[in-house]
Amino acid sequence: MSDLTATADSPVLAAARRAREAAAALAPVPRSVKDAALLAIADALVERSAEITAANAQDVERARAAGTAESVIDRLTLTAERIAAIASDVRSVVGLPDPVGEVVRGYTLPNGLDVRQVRVPLGVVGIIYEARPNVTVDAAALCLKSGNAVLLRGSGSAYRSNTALVEVLRAAVAGAGLPADVIQLVPGESRESVQELMRARGLVDVLIPRGGASLIRTVVEGSTVPVIETGTGNCHVYVDAQADLAMAVGVLLNSKAQRVSVCNSAETLLVHQDVADAFLPLALAALAEAGVTVHGDDAVLKAAEGTGVTAVPATEEDWGTEYLSLDLAAAVVPSLEAAVEHIRRYSSGHTEAIVTGSQPAARRFTQLVDSTTVAVNASTRFTDGGEFGFGAEIGISTQKLHARGPMGLPELTSTKYIVTGDGHVRGEARQTVGG
Amino acid sequence: MSDLTATADSPVLAAARRAREAAAALAPVPRSVKDAALLAIADALVERSAEITAANAQDVERARAAGTAESVIDRLTLTAERIAAIASDVRSVVGLPDPVGEVVRGYTLPNGLDVRQVRVPLGVVGIIYEARPNVTVDAAALCLKSGNAVLLRGSGSAYRSNTALVEVLRAAVAGAGLPADVIQLVPGESRESVQELMRARGLVDVLIPRGGASLIRTVVEGSTVPVIETGTGNCHVYVDAQADLAMAVGVLLNSKAQRVSVCNSAETLLVHQDVADAFLPLALAALAEAGVTVHGDDAVLKAAEGTGVTAVPATEEDWGTEYLSLDLAAAVVPSLEAAVEHIRRYSSGHTEAIVTGSQPAARRFTQLVDSTTVAVNASTRFTDGGEFGFGAEIGISTQKLHARGPMGLPELTSTKYIVTGDGHVRGEARQTVGG
Hints:
Two copies of one chain form a homodimer. The first copy, chain A, has two domains: 236 residues, 3-Layer(aba) Sandwich (Aldehyde Dehydrogenase, Chain A, domain 1), CATH 3.40.605; 148 residues, Aldehyde Dehydrogenase, Chain A, domain 2. Chain A is built from 15 helices and 16 strands. In chain A, the strands form four sheets. The first copy, chain A, has a seven-stranded parallel β-sheet with strand order 10-9-11-8-7-12-13, sandwiched between helices. In chain A, strands 5-4-3-6 form a four-stranded parallel β-sheet, sandwiched between helices. In chain A, 56% of the residues are buried. Chains A and B meet through strand 2, helix 9, helix 10, helix 15 and strand 13 of A and strand 2, helix 9, helix 10, helix 15 and strand 13 of B.
């Protein structure tokens, strides 16, 4: 259903059309050529570091003049050292296996037909993201390795940085003998260019929004192009009746406070009532030390007295909030089933952890909780492509279709069936469901 | 992102919410219980055959009064014999392996964490389809086996039949101890109920439209719920320079004419110029005998003279048309690459076949053609879940995300990661890309 073949092209659609052509050329390219292009990219980033940081300085200056928060400016800023680190990440992608061509299933039918299901690139991948220029290079490298053309639509506030980066990437790719149009920055800084990407069904195979909840929601709700929803994480730690309490404190602290601004950090603590009296004083004291503010139910507020923790009453809204800060909602629950019920109601389906010494409790929790990742006696922070051993990550999918959880290179592919016979034809006219 | 928790419920949303609850209860149910429910369904369909055919007779009568085409009425009609066949299909689903719980990947990380990726149900599956009451039972059986709740939105013209069928299914499911709400007919016959399903993001996990191109297009373009696009098939047969001509005639005839109204039948023939003079007279005579009308380019029209085939000049529109009739577009191409280019331009990406004796040509064609299925020396008609050995099929996906080609039970699942440790926490605060 290519809806767009007859329409006059805007710059965005023209870019998408060029990406489509380039993707077709890239799809059958063997790994050695793609790896050579990646190495050329890594070298070029380091060599041309000065022009990249010069362009980036303009973005940073504009952001500062606009009164942008320092944390955002920090994410936006590129230095020679940071560029070297980005280049090093590209080199590590070289070492990852090429997913394209992998035979996922293969068998011979009773009639002698050979059926093979083989991984192929998705085609054209659109990435919509915020003011992190490192994503420009990461996404381009992962898409290139998996045989996809990429349309990069970064934040307007990083437009100069991204323009410089993409110029470096394209020159390196062209130098390695591949079409430069496999990597393109979506032209224009306006919101309209995002809207155009979202409607480019038939030209763009998938859109992956990465960033804040409102960006993701806009893309998910308005796009006719298939979308992979990423990122929102209202993660829970449930401390079961039979938990090792010291372990539970360690898992809780790590889940909540090791790094607070990320999607796999915990936002809510649920404690089984049978261990609440023993566990909460320990946990709340540790949370106090970490500087965490607790939004508690009545039982938690009562336990907080004298522990030194800052505690405020939890509102209905707290249970559904992804704080991304040193805040934690906390409640005492009467049972594992009540914890599961709470999670089902409020979780964004990213990651939930149980701390328990009981095998039946672990089994029941992992069966009943429907999230991308269920952790048993481990921190929620492990839900991450790097931690899972994928070597790289294009995002964490929180939807159920196509990919769920951390997405590595295989998640940037589709499959096709190759059926081989000796002139095989079908015998009887049985019903085909699909058409 | 459950957008709907605060809204007042329409009957459709209320049904979706009940489905969601029922899906949560169904997800951990073991295979033996689901299989018992399927057997109960099969028995009940046969036992209550009379009330189903009585309801169906009302639909048929209304359709006939409305002047509906006989082919559509034939698809709509249920007889005791057809119901017995549908029941037998349900019994065959019992024999298929349960995809839920399958460990897709599993390994231990260097830090000792066990990671397992396990198949889980999608949750709530919405099926939107046309006037084929057999789909009601097929879809319900496949969703039940894969642990999903299903919302069935059939054609208004089959509403009485579907109401009777779903009543039988629900009673059987309840009798087997499962919540009846795992199978629901979407209330109302209006188009509005389809629109509501399409906007029920957060309640419905995936929509699968099955039927004509306009239905599929409406759902694909208007839905905020993830959609699996199915079915449109503008399939090609390419006869290469080194083809066995008798084999090519056999594959072409079977692809075009064995059953014309299905998505995996061929609509366009492409012939390499080096064999056109030898192949076309044979092929066109065979097509004439099968009653096929050829829409040819100049070379084909010239070759058609004296073969007895009905031949008309092909228009630009012909190359993009899914005839679903005894019509075939046909052209002579200068090379394999030109055939690939033609396919890339006009194909719907369903199935393309090459007939060739050349290994390099077969390899090149399968590499370059980007469709759900590429057949070498075999009919396009094999793209089918039954033919592929899946035992059952919920449709044929023509999109790249999640599932591509015939979809069986595994394609009705998602996965989740289960991560198990001994109190594992993350050591250093490295960057998490996803959020």
